[in-house]
Amino acid sequence: MVLYVVRHAEAEDKSVNRPDEWRYLTEKGRKAAVINAKALSERGAKSRRIITSPLTRAVQTAEIFARFACRRNTVEASMFLLPESKTAEMLEYLNNCDDKRIMLVGHEPQLGLLVTALLDRKEEIELKKGACVAMKLEKDKPAQFLWYLVPGKKPVSSIKKAFKLK
Q1: What is the dihedral of CA 138, 139, 140, 141, to 10 degrees?
Q2: Which of 3, 105, 116, 127 has its CA 20 to 30 A from that of 84?
Q3: Under 8 Å CB-to-CB from 66, ≥6 apart: which residues?
Q4: Secondary structure (DSSP) of 10-21
Q5: How do residues 7-48 score in pLDDT, each as one tens digit?
Q6: pTM of this prediction?
Q7: Is 61 left (phi over 0), alpha (psi -120 to 50) or beta?
Q8: What CATH number is given to the structural domain containing 84?
Q9: If you compute the radius of gyration of the chain from its CA atoms, what whole number of angstroms results?
């Protein structure tokens, strides 16, 4: 399976007037999500299934990516992608998943922890806003890093360069 992990794009700042779950994408965030979704599509990477955190900013990001994915794709909200969710829940879900290509859209630090665990890294990985990391998953093996895509930049196929690892 090929897994695409996408951090939501730039959202409005936290405010006492609006609950965190209602924070929505800024105009800059929307544009960045479109740029990255197009770039992902041009790489031939088209998910049929997109699973997103139910928070507004993640759902908006997922919907933008869905516009450039397979014609018959689905966008599903899942509690296991909420900011406070456990990495173990996400790993268990992926172990039982039989999709060929799947995209997860969510938040830091959870997505970075998931990518760190899948790639079996010691150094913690952090995804930039609106970024996408692609990995190939096989049962009972560490994931294979394919590339990392940040909005407006060229894809990076070296894990060390992508995340500035030693």
Answers
A1: 0
A2: 3
A3: 50, 73, 75
A4: -BPPPBTTB-GG
A5: 999 999 988 788 888 899 999 999 999 999 999 888 876 788
A6: 0.94
A7: alpha
A8: 3.40.50.1240
A9: 15
